[in-house]
Design brief:
Length: 265
């Protein structure tokens, strides 16, 4: 089937594939010909869904119906020409369905045209590349230092600078984040702002240090390397040795230490 897993980028719902696009398109279609009281949306939804699935996708060149079943579905209009209907209400129903479907197809086209126009207005070519330093929009990102900041409105709007490590797609990059951020490190370029260092005429100013993680009023330190170990049966004595269970956030270092010393515990 050649199915591939495509993860969305952090805090950029536009990357959520067909689901996000379909929901937005259906909302636009409903808005186009729903009644004034918005009471008939449930009656229109089946026809809108049918029209959406029967429309040719600009990216694939096929309709979802065709890709799913290998053929195009029969439309209500294909049944209207059948003579000698023994149930008059059937013809009435088919006519109403054909009319609703035509309206739905028209609404779908208008929705697609509108979304394309709006997307083109906001779309800008970016010049980011691997190795660049960028600022990251702070919206929807909570860092440990926020716990001591009472006013969200006064939080910094951008965090960083951070280095772009890898380009995942034309519009997404993997960003070098501090380990205590604990968020997905792939972001859309819309969340970036170019980092501009101070001009040399103003002297060299180092970037503001990243706020440390504070837990229960004490600063958290990142483990750099494991030097030695001690078996539990030897007793604690007067040292400051820590149990391995305290090293949940650096188990890669524990594994490296075990491999270097041939230890199994």
């Amino acid at each position: 089937m050649d199915v591939k897993l495509a993860l969305s980028t952090a805090y950029h719902p536009q990357t959520d594939g067909q689901t996000e696009v379909m929901n937005k398109t259906l909302k636009t279609m409903l808005r186009a010909f729903i009644d004034n009281k918005q009471s008939n949306w449930d009656q229109l939804l089946p026809s809108l869904e049918f029209a959406y699935n029967n429309a040719v996708n600009a990216s694939t060149g096929y309709s979802p119906f065709f890709l799913n079943s290998g053929q195009h579905p029969r439309l209500p209009t294909a049944l209207l020409g059948k003579p000698n209907s023994s149930v008059p209400t059937v013809d009435t129903f088919l006519t109403e369905q054909a009319t609703t479907l035509a309206l739905a197809q028209d609404a779908l086209q208008r929705a697609q045209d509108h979304q394309e126009q709006q997307a083109n207005k906001r779309r800008r070519d970016h010049k980011y590349k691997v190795g660049d330093k960028v600022l990251l929009r702070a919206t929807n990102i909570t860092i440990p230092a926020d716990s001591i900041r009472p006013a969200d409105k006064l939080r910094p709007q951008f965090l960083g600078p951070f280095t772009l490590l890898e380009q995942h797609s034309p519009v997404t990059f993997r960003v070098e984040l501090p380990p205590f951020y604990k968020i997905h490190d792939v972001f859309h370029v819309d969340t970036f702002r170019p980092y501009l260092p101070s001009p040399e005429s103003l002297g060299i100013r180092a970037p503001a240090p990243v706020d440390p993680t504070v837990i229960d009023g004490e600063e958290e330190y990142e483990v750099d390397e494991i030097l030695k170990y001690r078996f539990y049966r030897y007793g604690r004595e007067a040292d400051e040795w820590l149990p391995v269970s305290n090293l949940d956030n650096c188990m890669d270092l524990v594994t490296t230490f075990k491999e270097q010393h041939g230890i199994i515990f």
